[in-house]
Amino acid sequence: CNWNKKTMENTPKVSIIVLNWNNLKDTKECLESLGKISYPNHEIIIVDNGSADGSGKEIKKIFPQHIYIHNNSNLGFTGGNNIGMKYALKRGTDYIFFINNDMIVDKGFLEPLVEAMKNRKAGLVGPAIYSYFQREKICSAGIHLNFWKIKIKDYKFTGKVREVDALSGCFLIKKQVMDKIGYFYEPYFFNFEELDYCFQSKKAGFKIFCEPKSKIWHKVGGTLGKIPATATYYFYRNRLLFIKRNFPFYLKYPLYLYWNLFLMLRFIERLVKKD
Question: Which neighbouring-strand residues pair with 49?
């Protein structure tokens, strides 16, 4: 390591938060990739969400150089990450980068994100996300917010940073954003909390960018695929919670009606398919 004290002092501090829940294999691979990054002034905070399979203890043993926090119960994606964010802020961080534990990173992924944060209006900056299984396939370059679908749009890469509606899976957050809007909204538990955080950030006057020079690979469905019934529940339930929390009444009730009808039709479809 050739980092000197001057380099560290002149580089913003980034706290990277990795959440584990009963998943030694993916979390270990994620942490191994983070251990090779070239950005000098960073710390890694592992938050174990009450794992019952011994993975938390094993991760602490394998990676003693990182900060380790153990929660006595599963606080969800929102509660678990909030614990890590609050701890990082107490330690005087400049930025927080949270990342799903079923992702791996490029060695130089962090520098372009920090560079993009020099835009004084930027509040959140995310990388280009590729498929872990098809390395050149783009999974997400930011989310385009459609009132009716809330869908991910695959942006065409121009090689330049661009403004987007929202980000998912991982992104860098400026301390000033957390000072103004706080943390993830815990009633979501998991799913839609990232979209909600982006939505709240934009309402607070911050801009959101995707920086394609930063690359991350995602095992899409790696976590949620292990708990399909729970994932389905939160996928639909949190859509309604997102509408309730973020839209004015003249949009809220038409959207409630739309999504309830959609859910009923989808439920009937699944019954017919015996799923």
Answer: 71
Look up residue 240 and give its two tokens: 């309604």
Which region holds residue 156: left if phi is over 0, alpha if psi is between -120 and 50, else beta?
beta
Closest CA to 87 of 124, 117, 44: 44
Write out pLDDT tens, residues 47-70: 999 999 999 999 999 999 999 999
Cα separation, 163 vs 122, in Å, equals 9
For 150-183, write each residue's pLDDT tens digit.
Answer: 555 656 666 788 999 999 889 999 999 999 999 9
Which has the closest alpha carbon to 89: 198, 178, 186? 178
The beta strands (E) that lie in the chain are given as 14-20, 42-49, 67-71, 95-99, 103-105, 122-131, 138-140, 143-144, 151-152, 162-163, 170-174, 207-218
Q: How far apart are the C-alpha atoms of 257 and 32, rounded to whole Å?
A: 46
Give the C-alpha separation, 78 to 185, whole Å. Answer: 7
pLDDT tops 80 at residue 91? yes
How close are the terminal C-alpha atoms of the chain, in Å? 53
The backbone torsions φ and ψ at residue 140, rounded to the nearest 5 degrees and listed phi first, read: -160, 135
Instruction: Name the one residue in this structure whose structure tokens are 């989808």.
Output: 266
Nearest to 102 by CA among 227, 268, 223, 203: 223
Tell me the C-alpha distance between 249 and 258, whole Å.
14
Q: Closest by alpha carbon to 34, among 12, 18, 56? A: 18
Enter the DSSP assignment of 156.
P
pTM of the model: 0.90
Tell me how far apart the alpha carbons of residues 125 and 174 are, in angstroms, rounded to a whole number: 9
